[in-house]
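__Record contents__

***
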Amino acid sequence: MILSVGTFVLNDALRLSWLRYEVLIDDMLKMNRVAAFVITITLVNCWLCLTAIGADAKKYAASGNLLRVTDSMLLLRTTSQDLELTRDAKTKVDGQLTKGEFTRVIYDRVQGQAHALEITVGAAARAQVGAAAEKKK
C-alpha cells in the first residue's frame, strides 16, 4: 500500500514536470513564430530596398554624328570618343536613323555595355542639346 501511494505521488510529480515541459515547448514555439515573422519582415524590407536601388539606374546622354547603324547597334562619334550602343525594340527612336546625322542618345549601362533608351535625330537633337546646355548655366 505504501508502494502504491509512493507510485501515485511519483506519477503526479512526473505529470507536473511534463506539464512544465509542455509549457516550455509552447513558449518556444511562440518565440519561433515571432522570430520567423521578424526575419520575414526584415528580408522583405531588404528586398524592397535593393529593388528600389536597382530600379533607379543611372542614365547617360551623348550626342554626335552617326557613323554606323544596324538593327541591333549604332556607332556614335562624340567629341571625345566613338561610342558603340546596343538597341532593341524598346528603344524609342525620334527621326530617321541615317549615317552622318547629328544624334542625341539617352542610354544606360547593362552589364557594362551601353544600351540606348532614347534616340533623337536631326534638328530635334540639336534643340535638346541646346536646352541641356542652357539648363547647366
Confidence is low (pLDDT under 50) at residues 1-8. The beta strands are 60-69, 73-77, 82-86, 92-94, 102-110, 113-121.
